[in-house]
Amino acid sequence: MTGVPARPIRYYEAMGLLRRPLRNRHGYRLYAPETEERLRFIKSARGVGFSLKEIRRVLDMADEREAPCRAVLQ
């Protein structure tokens, strides 16, 4: 749905950029709509050259409900 292969998704989960998904009774991952939106953001940010460290910083601020604009401009 996002165009991101499974391997990077697992990596982003391991790095803490994505929350670990719930699993159904067959072991398949069940992603929330917010996870898809977050993954699209990561993909876009990577596409314009952001590092994973920079992406983490922006996502952390969004999770904390901080205004990331000021910090991103620094």
Instruction: Choose one word for the global shape.
Output: globular
Q: Low-confidence parts, pLDDT < 50 over ≥5 residues?
A: none
Order of helices and strands: HEEHHH
Mean pLDDT: 87
Explain how this protein is built.
This protein is mainly α. It has four helices and two strands; from the N terminus they run αββααα. The chain has helices at 6-15, 33-47, 52-63, 68-73, and strands spanning 22-23, 29-30. It has a two-stranded antiparallel sheet. The longest helix has 15 residues, at 33-47. The chain starts with 5 loop residues before the first helix and ends with a helix. The mean pLDDT is 87.
Task: Show the helix and strand layout.
Elements: H1 6-15, E1 22-23, E2 29-30, H2 33-47, H3 52-63, H4 68-73
Antiparallel strand pairs: 1-2
Descriptive keywords:
mainly alpha; 74 residues
Could you provide a short overview of the structure?
With 74 residues, this protein is mainly alpha-helical.
